[in-house]
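Posting this for the archive.
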Amino acid sequence: MRTQLRVCVGLIFLSVSVFAKQATPPAGSAQSSASVPTAAPSSTDHRVWLDVVVTDKSGNAVPGLGQQDFTLLDDKQPRTIASFQATDATSRATDPALRVIYVIDAVNTGIQAVTYQRMQLSKFLRQDGGHLALPSSLVIFTDTSTSVQPTTTRDGNSLADSLDSNAPGLRVLTRSGGFYGAEERRSLSLRAIDGLARYEATRPGRKMLIWLSPGWPMLSGPNVQLTAKNEQWLFQTIVTLSGELREARITLYSIDPLGMSDAGGFQTFYYESFLKGVPSYKKVENGNLALQVLAAQSGGRVLNSSNDIVKEIANCLEDAKAFYTISFDSPPADHPDEYHDLEVKVDKPGLKARTRTGYYAQPYASSGR
C-alpha cells in the first residue's frame, strides 16, 4: 500500500489508497470494487452489534433507559439481547471511543457549494472557542485523492485551520458531465466510502460519519436498464457496504450543502423510494446505493432542507448525547447474503428508537444447531 504524508497546519493528513485492488466490474456499471468475503462465518462470528438512539417527540435523545425497556425484532421475530450498554453525557466524557468524522465532498458538489460548506464547517468548529465536545477528524474527498486525517482532536480551531488551508481545488469531473460522468462520480464515491469503512473497521468505537454532499448520482429511472451481471455486482456491493459500515460501527449522516436550492425538488426525496432492504440481486436498483439511502439504513439522518449547515451538524450531534449499544446472536442463514429486517422498539410512550434497519446473515461454516 502506497501512502503519502502531508503536513497541514500542525495536523497530518494521510492520502492513502485505501481501496483493495479487485476485479473490474462489468462494462457499463459503476459498482464499488469492494471485495465480498467468500468464506462462511463460523458459529463464533454471528453476533450483531447495534448502536441505538432513542428520541422523544421533540427529537431529543433520551438517556436513562435500561435493557428491559427494549425489544429487538429480527424479521419480526423477538431476539434475546445478549449485551447492553447505555452511554450518556457522563459516561461519554470518559469514553474516547465515540468519534466524529467530517467528509468534505468535492466530487459531487460544485465549487461554490464546496466553498460554502467549508466555511460553514469551519464556523462550526470554531464555536465555543474551538472546544469540541467530541474527538473529531476530517476527510477531504476529491476526484484525485481521499485525504484522511488519521488522528482525532477536540481542538476545533486546529481542525478549522487545517480545513481552511486545504482547499480541494478544481475538479476534473463536473456535475454536467453526462451519464458517464455521473457514473464515474458514483463509482469514485462508492470506492471512497468503502475505503473509509475498511479503514475505520481497524479502529475501535462508534463513529459518526457526517458527509457534506448533495449525494452522488442515483442513476435510477424508467429508462435505466440493468443486465443480470450489473444486478449481481450491485447486490454484492450493497451486501459488502452494509457489512463494512455495521462492523466498523459507522452511523452515516447526509447533509446537503445546497439546502434550500435543492429542497422541494424531485431528487431531494427520490431516495425514499429505495429505503427498503434488498433481499436479492433480482430486486436491486441503482438507487439502493444512494448516499441518503445508506445513511438512513445505518441509523443516521438525511438533512437536505436548510442552508444552515452549522445548525444541521449540531442536529446530527444530538445523537451523541445519549445512545445504547446492544448485541444479539443471529441465527444461521439458509443461504449466503440472507437479508434480515431489524427493528428496535422502546416500551415507553412517545419514544422512538433509531438504529440500523437490516443486515445480511451468512450460513455458519459448521452449524451445530
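The two ends are 41 Å apart (CA to CA). DSSP finds eight helices and 17 strands in the chain.
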